[in-house]
Structures are given as C-alpha cells and as structure tokens.
Amino acid sequence: MTSLIKKITLTLVAGLAALAVRAQEDVPLINFGPAKQLLTLNAHVGAGNSLISSNLESAFPSITESSLNAGWAFLFGATAEVGLRDYLALGTEVNLLIDNYTGDIIVHREASRQVSNIFLRNHFYAINFPVYLSLKMNLASTVRWNVDAGLYYTYGLGGKQHQTVYNAVVNDLGQQILSSYSTTSNYYNDSRSFINSAHKGDIGLHIASGLTFRDRYILGARARLGLKNIANTVGLIHPNIHNFSFMVVIGYRFF
C-alpha cells in the first residue's frame, strides 16, 4: 500500500511540474482544432488495489461483524483511440485483470450456541472492455493531460475462493467444543462459495486520468466502480456486492 501511495504522489508531482512548465510556454490549454491523428495505439500495465462493497451484516442478522480488505490488483492491456478533435477522442481498451481481496467474517448462531470465524481469500481473473470519451489538454508543448470517463464491461475468466472456518460450540454440558476446516471453491458461479459466488459479467464506470510525455510515455491512474450486483446466490436472501478498484498505470504509445 505504501508503494501505491508513492506512485500516486509521483503522478501528482509530475502534473504540478508540467503546470509549472506550461506557465512559461505559449501553449493553449485546449486546442479546438482537428485531431492530429485519426488513430492512436498504446500498451500499458498497472498495479493497485481491488475490493468489493457489501451489505452482508444488514442482509444476514447472524453476521455480527465483517471486514473486507483490499488486495493487490494488476492490469495488462492495450488502448485504441479515434481522434474526434485535438482535445477529444473516443477510446476503447482490452485489459487482463488479476484481482485479490480478503475477508474476515464472524457468524453468531444463538439458537445453536455456535460462533464461527470465517477467513476468505479471493483470487480471480477477468477480461475488461472499457469504452470512454477522453478530454485532452496541453500542459506543455511535450506534455498532455487526459481525463477519461465512460463505461466498462468485464467478463470473469476464473478464480478461486479459499475458506478457513473456525467454529466454537457450547454443548449441553456447558463445554466449548472447537473445530476448524478449510475448503476451496471457484470464485465464479459456484454454490460451494461462502454465502455467494460471483456472476461472471459486470458493468460499471471507467474513470481515468494521466499524463503523456513527448507523445510516447504515459503515467496515469484509473478507477473501476461496479454498478451491477455481482452476487450469485441460490438462497432467498440476495446480498448486494459491487466491484471496486484503483490502479496506477504506465504505458507506451506506439503512434
């Protein structure tokens, strides 16, 4: 997490440095003229954190405490943009996502005098297709700032959920009986997952910003905000689960 904060700080410092350079150059912030190129292509990699939001405690009264912790996320992909004007482009991407997050959940069943502590480790892969509009501004003669906003569709390729469960039960003699077990299930579409697995399809907001240096080198940050409830459950109660991620990205523009 510390390294991620450092990357974000470097991105901000680079942006401030570019603004300082622009103050000394006669470069329009926004050029309303025609696009210099019809098509641009780049490749990029990214690293950051992924997480889900959930309403497990409100959906299931027996869950007395739940903690979902962000894990490392990685991205490998390519971008194609069509220039509409010098300041505006329509873009799309193909990205391979590798996401992780963990969970710590406490379940208290008063009727059976049982308390369970469940530790979850989720690791999964997906292919991601954002489509967005990109606003481009000139911070200096060799530095461009882009702000992107659009929608994405993600399709899950596979993954695993690892469960470690610790149980404590008080028997009729007042004795506390301890037990534990571990199990592994598929992350997507598997009824063996804890409470619910995940649907493979997801739709959400794609938000990104970055700097391009000398029309070649890219440094940016992006977020995915899931709009679809991805919980796949066979029970009567359907929790509300959404994907979130934040990444720092570096890339190279080919032309």
Describe this entry's structure for a reader:
The chain is mainly beta. The chain contains 2 helices and 11 strands; from the N terminus they run αβαββββββββββ. The protein has helices at 2-22, 56-59; strands at residues 39-54, 63-85, 88-109, 114-140, 143-170, 176-186, 197-198, 201-213, 217-226, 231-232, 241-253. An 8-stranded antiparallel β-barrel has the order 1-2-3-4-5-8-9-11. The protein has a two-stranded antiparallel ribbon with strand order 7-10. The chain is elongated. It starts with a helix and ends with a strand. The mean pLDDT is 89.
Unreliable stretches (pLDDT < 50, length at least 5) are none
* Strand residues, percent: over 45%
Structural class, by secondary structure, is mainly beta
Largest sheet: 8 strands, antiparallel, barrel
Roughly what is the average pLDDT, rounded to an integer?
89
Helix content: under 10%
Instruction: Count the beta strands.
Output: 11
What global shape is seen? elongated
Distance between the termini: 33 Å
Gyration radius from CA atoms, angstroms:
23 Å
> Could you give the order of strands across the largest sheet?
1-2-3-4-5-8-9-11
Can you count the helices?
Answer: 2
Order of helices and strands: HEHEEEEEEEEEE
